[in-house]
Amino acid sequence: MIETGTGCKEARIVEWIPEQTMQQNYDFSSYFRPSIIILKILGFWRPERNMKFKGIYNCYTALCSLIWVQFLLSQIIYIINNRNDVQEVTAVLSVTVTFTINLIQMMFFYKNTNYLKILIKEMNRPLFQVKCQKHYHIAKNTERMYKLMFKSCLYLAILTDALVTVVPLMGKEKKSSIKGWFPYDYTKPLYFILTYIFQKLVFIWNTFICLNTAMTIIGLLTQFGLQCDLLCCTLDSLDDFYTEGNVLYEISLEDKLKLTKDRERFSIEMTKNLVICVEHHRQIIRVVKDVERISGTGLFILFVGGGLILCSSLFPLSVSSLILQSAFNTPWIGCNVKFQKIMLLYMMKTSKPMSILTGGLFTMSVPVFVSTLRTAYSYFTLLQNIQ
Fold it and tell me: CB atoms < 10 A from the CB of 3, how many?
């Protein structure tokens, strides 16, 4: 804490303790709560070690996975039986590939659930917390944007499931929109009803699992973008903060005016603040690398099946390039050479953009997505020529 005299110091304590308490308890984990609840209901959120009825829940997860595999087997056998009919194979292949990609991606997600839990908890660390009203408003706006995105995707998922379930039954001929092989004559009324319910339940189940696993990853990526925004805001107004216990707090206007009159003390305090910002930036990079390590392969698979969604979700990371400009906006002119040297080294560090590698092969970006679309179109053209 900055020493400004006993009276001033006591006044600051009375004024700022409630603010510090409010600022250091922003619950970033609330982003993930709806997705985690849905994944628990669907059986694909790894339980805690001390969870009651853990064995029963694991059996439920295994049963759900078995049903998913049975659905895929019916698709694969149907493709093998109709391998000479390009139209039939193509009609089933889109569903088969989608569900296979979703299953593999879900397996990687489930495997790394415990690591994801740790990352989610880390987002509430004091270093990542909001530190002033500007930070709070940025965090709130980002949270509202994410919740709007989640609700919109949830609404579209429900609408899609409803249409896929109801529309095939509206025609004169009752038939399923999903083809597959079954060891019985599923055209008979009773068998048709049971098969139809089985396929639609798997489809709905798959939709909600994919939605919430994707939204969990998107939530983490949104957090990275938010942390970059908070860091930019801090650097833009670095002289509005002071350091206490390796945490930044907003300084009062009176203390700020007194501090700026003493160039040496001002440089010392700005250096402390800058060190915290450097550590903040380092921790953001570390968490990004942790996400890359535990979910890079799963993201690669998801990127292949839905590149557009991931390119949109990774957009928040692009704001990391603004950190360099925000660092330049700090009051470095009024500081000593030591501060300026640290600032120069830090700006050189921030000049390198953050990114995530998928499968250790390439960085997910718009050019890569365009390349994926071109490949898909080439495949579509090939099928047309074969037909």
Answer: 9
The helix (run of H) or strand (run of E) holding residue 273 is: helix 263-305
Least confident of 23-32, 185-194, 311-320, 348-357: 311-320
What is the domain partition of the chain in residue ranges? 6-386
Q: CB–CB of 260/71 below 8 Å?
A: no
Beta-carbon count within 10 A of 29 CB: 16
- The DSSP-derived string for 63-129 is HHHHHHHHHHHHHHHHHHHTTT-HHHHHHHHHHHHHHHHHHHHHHHHHHTHHHHHHHHHHTTSGGGS
Average pLDDT over residues 339-355: 82
Q: Across the chain, how many H-helices and E-strands are there?
A: 13, 4
Structure-token pair, residue 328: 């330049």
Tokens of 280: 């903040």
Q: Given its phi and psi angles, is residue 93 left (phi above 0), alpha (psi -120 to 50 degrees) or beta?
A: alpha
Q: What is the pTM of this model?
A: 0.74
Residue 146 CA to chain centroid, in angstroms?
A: 10
**Dihedrals phi, psi of 360, to nearest 5 degrees:** 70, 20
Name the pLDDT band for 98 (thresholds 50, 70, 90). confident
Q: What is the mean pLDDT of the segment spanning 153-158? A: 92
